[in-house]
Amino acid sequence: MPEEPGASSRLIMKRLQAENDFVVKFANVNGSGSASANELFAKSILRMGVPVSPRNIFPSNIQGLPTWYEVRVSGAGHLGRRGGVDLMVAMNPQTWDKDVAEIEPGGYLFYDSSKPLPPSRFRDDIHVIGVPLTELTNARYDDARERQLLKNIVYLGALAAMMSIETTVVETLLAEQYSRKPQLLAANREAFHLGHGYARTHWADALGLKVRRADAIGERIFVDGNAAAALGCVYGGASVCAWYPITPSSSLAEAFQKYCAELRVDPASGAHRFAIVQAEDELASIGIVIGAGWNGARAFTATSGPGVSLMTEFIGLAYFAEIPATIINVQRGGPSTGMPTRTQQSDILACAYASHGDTKHPLLWPEDPHECFEFAAAALDLADRLQTPVFVMTDLDIGMNQRLTKPFHWDDARRYDRGKVMTTAMLESGRVFGRYLDVDGDGIPYRTYPGTHPTQGAFFTRGTSRNPYAVYSEAGPDYLYNMERLLRKFDTAKTLVPAPVMLDAAGGTRFGAIFFGSTSPAMREAVELLADDRCRLDTLRLRAFPFPDAVLEFIDAHEVVFVVEQNRDAQMRTLLINELGIDPGKLMSVLHYDGTPITARFIHREIGQKMRVLGMEPLYDRVVNDRRGA
Amino acid sequence: MTYLAKPLMHHPSLPRNSLGYTRRDYEGKISTLCAGCGHDSISAAIIQACWELAIEPHRVAKLSGIGCSSKTPDYLLGNSHGFNSVHGRMPSVATGANLANRDLIYLGISGDGDSASIGFGQFSHLMRRGVNMTYVVENNGVYGLTKGQFSATADSGSKSKYGGVNRDAPIDLASIAFQLGATYIARGFSGDKEQLVPLIMGALTHPGAALLDVVSPCVAFNNHLGSTKSYDYVREHNEALNRLDFITGRAPIEARYAPGETHEVDLHDGSRLRLVKLDAAYDPTDRVAAQRHLLARQRSGEVVTGLLFLDPEPEDLHRHLNTVATPLFALGEDELCPGAEALARINARLR
Hints:
The structure holds two protein chains of two kinds.
Chain A (H helix, E strand, L loop, with lengths): L17 E2 L1 E9 L4 H14 L4 E6 L8 E9 L10 E6 L5 H6 L1 E10 L14 E5 L1 H8 L3 H20 L3 H11 L4 H21 L6 E2 L10 E4 H11 L4 E4 L6 H14 L11 E4 L3 H13 L4 E5 L1 H17 L3 E7 L16 H5 L10 E2 L4 H18 L2 E7 H4 L2 E4 L18 H5 L31 E3 L13 H21 L4 E3 L7 E6 L3 H13 L5 E5 L1 E2 L3 H8 L3 E6 L5 H10 L6 E5 L8 H14 L5 H11 L1
Parallel strand pairs in A: 1-8, 2-5, 5-6, 6-7, 10-11, 10-12, 12-13, 13-15, 14-15, 19-20, 19-22, 22-23
Antiparallel strand pairs in A: 2-4, 3-4, 9-16, 14-21, 18-20
Helix pairs in contact in A: 1-4, 1-5, 3-4, 4-6, 7-8, 7-12, 9-10, 16-19
Chain B lengths: L37 H16 L6 E5 L3 H4 L9 E4 L5 H11 L4 E7 H6 L2 H10 L3 E7 L2 E2 L5 E2 L22 H8 L3 E6 L3 H13 L3 E7 L15 H7 E3 L1 E6 L14 E5 L5 E6 L9 H13 L3 E8 L6 H5 L11 H4 L2 H11 L2
C-alpha cells in the first residue's frame, strides 16, 4: 500500500467532510481523452439525482496543453462556481504545483502514484490519495492509445468507489455511450472496475466527499447554451444561417445544422427547409443574414467578439436601412484574440453601440441554456418587429458548458411576429406606403418584401440618408426625421424586450445589486451567503437593453447599487449611466475578468467587504444585532 | 447629368413586349452620372434586355455595393426593389437574398473597385458557390467617385489622368471567374450595345452564377491617351470571339448563318442561345481550352469580348444545399416549427 506523503501531520490536519456539496477539479492534458471520462463523472452524479455543474477550462489548442474540468456538486442546487477546490484530480505534471496549491486546506489530492514523487511536491495540510493508474493500465492493456484513454476510466472507477457513486449508474451511462460499439463498452467497463476495485481495497475511507442519491433534479435537462440557442433558432423559424468558425460559437452553428437535419427536412422530398452557409468570413456571414432578412427570411449568425468587430459596418447599415438580423454573440475574453477559450462579458458596449455614427441595438442577456433557447426565438421575433439587428449576448460559460436547466418549452399556438409587412392587398387598398414613414407613432415603419407588387411598394434600400419615402436625400430635416424616428423606435423596443427579474430581500434594504447573463447562478448563491452574514441585498437581473423603465425605478429605490459584471471596464455600469442618466457615485462595480467564470465566494467577499468597509450595514440591523448581543 | 425630372408622358407608339410593357416601364430614376459615362449605356442595355425578355420588372431584385456603378440600380427598373449595400459586400447580400427567395431574378451591379479590390473575396466566394444571379462589373479601371485613383483592374503600364503610371499587375475578373467555377462568363463593351444586350439576356436567363465584365470608360478620369480603358483604346483593341443571338422560345428560328459558323445551345426555359463564331478556334463550352485561348489573346494586348464560357448544365447554390422549392421566406410556422411534441422528445434525450 503506497504511503501517503505528509502523513505525519495527519493527526492534527483538518479533513473536509461533505455530502453532495463539494468541488472536484480535474487537471488534464488536452487531447488525452479525459473529457469523456470527466463528463461521465458529472453525469453519474446527475443520474443519482444530485445537481452538478461542470465547467471546461480549456486552451486554444488541440493536443498537449493543460485543460481543466471543474465539477460543482451541490445538493442545494447551486449551479455557479463556488470558488476553491476540495478534491484535485491532478493528471497533468505541467500544472502540478499550481493545481496542488489550489486545494482547500483539509482537501484532497488524487494523483497517479505509478512514479514516486518527492515529498516537496506535496503539501502537509491536504490529504493525498495515490492510485498507480499508469501501472494498472499498462499491466492490462498493450495498445498505447488504449492505455492513454482507459487510464481516464480507471480514475473514474477509483473516484466512484471512494465517493459512493453507484456502479450501476456508471454502467448504464457507459452502455448508452457505447451502444453501437460493444468492444469499447467491454473495455471501458473493465477499466472502470479496475480502478474501482483498487480504490475499494486500498483507499476505502480515504475521501470525506460523498455522493448520496437524492431527488433534486426534477424535470430539468442537462444541455449547453450553444445547442439550446441553436434549437431556439429552429423553433423561432430561422431558415437562413450564415457563420464563420470562431470559438466559442462554432458549436452553435453546428448544432443548428444537426437539429435542422433532424427537424427541418421535408418528409416527402427530402429537401431542406433551411440554408446554412459557412461563409468566407464574418463580413460575409452578416451580409448573407442581412440579404436574407431584407428578403423576408428569418436569418441569424453566431459569432464572438472579433467577429462582431468585423461585422460592425454591416450592422450600421442594417440599423440605418432597417433590416432584421439576429446575431448571437458567444462572448469570450478580449480584446483582440484575447483569451479565446475563456469567458467574459466584455462586448457590451461594442454591441450596444456597434458601428460608426449614432447607433444603438437591442441586446438580450440569457442566464442559462433555457433562456438561450427562449431568447434566440425571441430575438428572431424582435428583429422582425423592430426591423433592426438584435444581439443575443451569451458567453463561453453558458455556451460551451452543459448546465442543468429548466426544460425547453414551446406553445404550439404561438405565431411568429413577422412585424409590419405591407402585403399586396394592403397596397391595393390604397394605403400610403412610405418605407421610412412613421404611421403608427411607434417609430416602426412598414416594409414590403421584394417582388410583392408589379407597380406599388418597390423601394430602394440604402445606407445613405433618405426621406420617408426612401428617396435619396441629404436634406437636414429629412435626416433628422429619420434619426429621431429611430430613437422613437428604440423607445418602443423598451416595451418589447424581456423585462428584468427582481428579487427583494426580506425586510427591505437600501442596497441593490444588478447582474446579468452567466453571473446569475453564482450571484444567487452569493446573495444567500450575504444573507447569512445579515447583509441584505435586493437584486435585479437585467435581461435586455434598451433598459425597461423598471431598471431606473430599481436604481432610484436604492441608495447604492452594486453592478456585478465580468469585464474590466464596468461596461454595464457605463451603459446604465449613459442611458439612464444615473449619478455614477451610486453604482459600485464588482468586476471579475480573469477569464474564469465568476464565483459565489468572489461576489460574497467583494460585496460583503464593500458593505462593511463603507459602513453600509443597515442601521436597523446593527441596532437589532446589538440588542441581541446584549 | 441633368437635374430635370423625367417626364411621365409616354410616346403612344412605343413598342410593347408580350407583357404589354414599353421600354419606359423598365426605366428608373434619371441618372446622376457624368454625360457620356459608359455605365449609363450599360443601364440602357439592361433595360433593353429586360424588355426583350419580357421580365416582370418587380420580379427582379437589384443589388449593388458602393461606387459610381453601384448607384446605377436606381436608374433602371424603377418597379424593382433595390439594395445599395456596403462597399465590396454586394455578393454576400445577394447570396442571402437569393437563399431567402429563390424565385426572384437577381441582378448585381458592381464596379472594378467594388469587386476586384475591397470586394475581391466576396466576389470570389459568390462565384465558387454558384449563386444564381447576373453579376455585372462595370469596369473602368479607376475609382470615379473619389476622383481618379487606379483600381485593381487597371492594366500594368496604364497612365492615370494626372500622369501616374500603374505598375501593379491587373486582376482580370473574367479569368478568375473561370477558375472559381462560374458557369456563364462574358465580356462586353459599353460602347457596343448590339453585342451587349444579348450577353445580358443570356446572363439573366442563366440558372447559375453569371459574370458579365463590361469595359465601361470613365469619361471624367480614365478616357485619355495612355489609358487602356478609354473609348478609343477599347474600340481599337476590341476582338470579339463571337456574336450572341438570344432567341426566346416564341421567336421563329431563322437560318441566317451557314452551318459550321454557329454554335447553338438550347436552354431549359425553351429559349436558345445562338453563337456566331468570329474566331473559329474558340469553343466557349470547354473550360480549360477557353481559358488558355483567352489568356494568350489577352497577353497580346487584345480586349477579348463575347461569350467567353457557358456551362449548359449549371448547378447553383440552392441545388447544392438541397433547399425546398418554396422560397424559404414564404415558409410559415407549419413548415419551420417542429412543435411542442418534438421538443418534449428532445427534452427527454437531455436528461
